[in-house]
Structures are given as C-alpha cells and as structure tokens.
Amino acid sequence: MDWGTELWDQFEVLERHTQWGLDLLDRYVKFVKERTEVEQAYAKQLRSLVKKYLPKRPSKDDPESKFSQQQSFVQILQEVNDFAGQRELVAENLSVRVCLELAKYSQEMKQERKMHFQEGRRAQQQLESGFKQLENSKRKFERDCREAEKAAQTAERLDQDINATKADVEKAKQQAHLRSHMAEESKNEYAAQLQRFNRDQSHFYFSQMPQIFDKLQDMDERRAAHLGAGYGLLSEAELQVVPIIAKCLEGMKVAADAVDAKNDSQVLIELHKSGFARPGDVEFEDFSQPMNRVPSDSSLGTPSDGRPELRGSGRSRAKRWPFGKRNKPRPPPLSPLGGPLPWALPNGPPSPRSGLDPLAILSEISKSVKPRLASFRSLRGSRGTVVTEDFSHLPPEQQRKRLQQQLEERNRELQKEVDQREALKKMKDVYEKTPQMGDPASLEPRITETLNNIERLKLEVQKYEAWLAEAESRVLSNRGDSLGRHTRPPDPPASVPPDSSSSNNSGSQDPKESSEEPLSEEGQDAPIYTEFDEDFEEESASPIGHCVAIYHFEGSSEGTISMAEGEDLSLMEEDKGDGWTRVRRKQGGEGYVPTSYLRVTLN
User: Cα–Cα distance between 325 and 258 in angstroms, integer?
Assistant: First the structure.
C-alpha cells in the first residue's frame, strides 16, 4: 500500500504529516543538544570536584601519600576523573553523531519535501488552468447555441410576417445561418477542450500525483528510519562507555579494599619514628646529707670530685638489664634556659658552706626535672630548623632513613654513569676499528666528563656511607640506652648478645662499688639476670636462616659485629623495622649488622 493509491486525495494531510515528521526530527536534535550540554556540565563539575580534593603537593613531597587511606582516596578521585572523561566522551559522540548529522539530514529533508510539494502544486495549477479553459469553452458554446437559436426564431418569424420585406427576411436567414455556424465551432472547441482536460486530469490523478506522493512517502520513511537510528545512537553512546565506567567502579572497589589500617600504623611509625631513647627516671640528688654530716669515705657524701654519690646508682641499673651496654657518662641535666645546671659542671656541686639554703637546693632540683619534660617535646622539631646535608637536623631514625635514600640514589646514579662509560668505550672501540663511522677523539670529552662524574659520585657514596654508619650507630646506641632502663626489653633488635654485654657490664663495674653493694640487693637482682639470660640463650641457639654480607662492615659501636664482604653468617633474628639484623659468625660471636648490607635467606 502506498500513498499515491490510498491517499490520492489527501494532499493537505500529507503536507501536514511530513511537516510534523521534520518538526519531530528537529525536536530530537534539540533534545540531544541539551542532553550534551548537561553531560558536559556534569563532567566539568566532576573534574572541578576532583581538582578541589586532589592533594596540592606532589606525592613525592607529601608524607600523607604513603598511607593506604590517602592512596585509596586519590585513586577514587582519579577514577571519578576518568568517569568524568567518559561523560565527556558521551557528550562528544552525541554532539557529532547525532546533533550534527541529524541537523544536516533535517535540512536535506526540508529541501526535498519543498521540491516535491512545489511539483505537486504546479501539477494542480496546470489542472486547474485546464479546467478553467474547459469552463470558458463550455460557456461560449452555450452562449453561441442560445444566440443561434434566437437568430433562427427571428428569421422564421420574419418569414411568416406578411409585412416584412424580402430583404429583411434574407438578412435574418443569413444571421441565423451565421449564428448556427458559430455555435457549431464552439461545440467543436468545447469537445476538444473537454477531451484535453480529461486526459490531463487522468494523468494528474493516476500518474503525476501518485508519483509525487510516493516520493513523499519514501522521503518520510527514510526520515523515520534515520530518526530511529538516531534514537539508537543515544543508547549506543552510553553502551560504548559502559565497560570503561565499569572499570572505574571496579577501581573504586579495589581502592576501598586496599585500605590497610595495620599497614598505615606501620607507615606512621616509619615516618615519625625518631630513634631517641626514652627519658630515664629523674635521679634523687640528696643535698641535705652534706649539710648535716662531715664527708667521709664510709658515708654517703661528696666524693673527691665534688659530686654527691648515690648508692648503687649506675651498677644496679646496669645489672638489671643483662643486654645493656657499659655505663656511659650521663649528659649533664639542662636548665630551663637550655644550658647545664651549675652544679652539673665538671667542677662539681657547690659546697654546703656556699650559702645555699635548703629551699634553694630544692629549687635547683625542680629545675633539673623540667628540662627532661621539655626534651620530650623538643623531639618534634620546629619550623626554623636549618636543613643540613647529613640530615643531622632530623631525629636519628629519620636521619638514617633519609641517608639510606640518598645513598641508594647516589648508587643508582653511579651505576648509570658506569654504564654510560662502558657504552662510550665500546663506541670508541667501534670508531677506532671503523673510522668511517666516526672520530674516536670526539668521544673523549664525554668520557672525561663521565669519569669525573663517577669520581664525584664515589666520593658522595663514601660520604653518605660514613654518615649512615654513624647514624645507625647512634640509633643503636639510643635504643640500647632506652632498653637499659627497663626490666623487660621492648625492642630485641637494639639489644646485644649476652656474652659481650655481661662481660662489658662486669668490666664496667667498679670494685669498690661492688664491695659496698649489699648482698641482699645482689640476691634480688640475680634471678632477673638469669631469667633474661636463659631466654636469650634459647632464642639464639637456633638460627632461622642464613645470610651473605654484600658489603664490608666495621662493627665499631657496642652491640654490633664486624663482617667481611661475601662472608656467610647465620641469621639469628630478623629485622624488626629498625634497620638492624642479629647474626652469628661461624668463628663465634653474635651481634647486629645493617640489614641493607645483607642478602638474607630464611629457612
């Protein structure tokens, strides 16, 4: 069924219908255009939101970027940014494939529709013109027939009138004959015009207009099909980005699952672990005894150096911790202004006869307590800290880590320069063997520059290695001091083997102090010492793996052990996160060495 056959008389209906179809196409184009604007605005707002919440500092300089929570949040922001990119892609596809193409197609359809209806209207005008000519010829034929009949009646009346002259009768007959002839010509013209109009009308209704209507039908069907394809492009543009959007959502899910609370706690420790030893107990300085008694060798008083002696002050504490170091000279207590107290100087405390009353002495004691509390707060540093090349402005643990990073960077640069030197040497050999490929002398400046860089980097590596060894010794020393003040070691890696520590402790004790110490105190300390000694012997009896020394290490600080490059060692205890590993040599002896100097294999 087609429009030319079934709708041959619905010219106005077809005109309205085709116009409605084009209006619908334009409305859909406008809808898609506004949808594109919505997608672009949505994507723009998403990108602005992501930009607002993204970290301003680069991840390399931002310590918060090391936490899994921050990393997951940044990953989610990146996924949202990718999602916004997919919305922009949807908007672009809709704008290009729907808006532009359908708008262009709509203009073509309008031109084609206009052409078809102009052709139909011309055919209608031609048919109407033929019909008017037919009507004119018909009216002329009718008028000529009436006039011929009237002229015939007039001639017949004059012929019967006896009073009419012969000339009048002849004239009337001629007039009647003329009118009859004109009527006959009008009749023939009307018949011919009628035949022509019928032929044109048949062509108009059965051939010309059906063809125009069929063309309009084809145009409208093509428009509808194109519009349907445009409807499909709307969903197709969405389906194209669905896999990427699904990956974005999956990335968000992975980022959510990547949050590791335990690891973040460890990261916080790694970032802010200072390596300082915990403040020890504040010692009681008894200033009242010298004021009441005369100093003597057998009483608690002022020794030869002028400082008050506390009973068993250093010996008992060293003995209670079996893995401690030798007694070290404790730094003088600080005054609230940052300097040492006057009585803490090498000249010793003031004499009781110097005029200080007991209230002044108690005031000095209270002043000696405040710096200990302030020193704990001072570990946090300040904004005015001067940055030094060896990072000595940082806490010991952070200094060690920064030096380790710098050392690794210098080693990488050194390896890169060595590789470049080898490449230049090979290129020089090729040039010497094949002169046409290049001049060997042209490579000399680059080789010289590379050698200079290698020498410079070697010096820097040695410098950072020395600083790193010093920092590691300081960390180990601080940890040993901290552990020596507790009855139970909180961090085993900072301890030293019982053999060396016990010998050191015994060697560091003063014979006079040991003779003056009560036997009851020795009996109380002995079980504690034996308990830790047995635990340490059981723990050190079974190696948990073996390791090979990658670099030479001089165990100059107490608690460490020296090793040669390539030496095989027994792994007694893994690194607990402080950068030190306890090992045992085949020749005997245990101690701590830097973990970065070892290649470890666990059993």
Answer: 43
391 Cβ contact list (under 8 Å, min separation 6): 398, 399, 402, 403, 467
Cα–Cα distance, 133 to 126 (Å, whole number): 11
Whole-model pTM: value is 0.50
What's the pLDDT tens digit per position in 7-25? 888 888 999 999 999 999 9
Taking the chain, what is the end-to-end CA distance rounded to the nearest angstrom? 89
User: Coil, helix or strand for 549?
Assistant: strand
Q: Does the pLDDT value for residue 452 go beyond 80? A: yes
Strand order in the sheet with 580-585: 590-594, 580-585, 568-573, 545-549, 598-602
CB 588 within 8 A of CB 581: no
Question: What values do phi and psi take at 515, rounded to 5?
Answer: -75, -30
How many angstroms separate the CA atoms of 559 and 577, rounded? 17
What six digits make up the tokens of 208? 């010309």
Share of the chain above pLDDT 90, in %: 27
- Please state, in angstroms and as integers, the Cα–Cα distance from residue 498 to each residue in 283, 572, 588, following that order: 27, 14, 13
**What are the two backbone dihedrals, phi and then psi, of residue 551, each rounded to the nearest 5 degrees?**
-125, 160
Instruction: Extract the tokens encoding 192.
Output: 């011919």
**3-class SS at 589?**
coil
Strand 545-549 vs strand 590-594: parallel, antiparallel, or unpaired?
Answer: unpaired
What does R_g of the chain's alpha carbons equal in angstroms?
56
Long-range contacts of 18-24 (CB under 8 A, 24+ apart): 18/113, 18/216, 18/219, 18/220, 19/113, 21/220, 21/223, 21/224, 21/227, 22/106, 22/109, 22/110, 22/113, 22/223, 24/227
Pick the closest to residue 334 from 370, 294, 384, 296 (CA basis): 370
Q: Which two tokens stand for residue 480?
A: 């040993």
SS3 287: coil
**336 within 8 A of 371, measured Cβ to Cβ:** yes
Residue 270 CA, chain-centre distance (Å), reads: 23
Q: How many residues does the chain have?
A: 603
CA-CA distances (angstroms) from residue 428 to 127, 236, 441?
98, 60, 8
Q: Tell me, what DSSP letter sits at residue 349?
A: S
Lowest mean pLDDT among 47-61, 123-137, 457-471, 514-528: 514-528
Sequence-separated (6 or more) residues with CB below 8 Å from residue 407: 461, 464, 465, 468
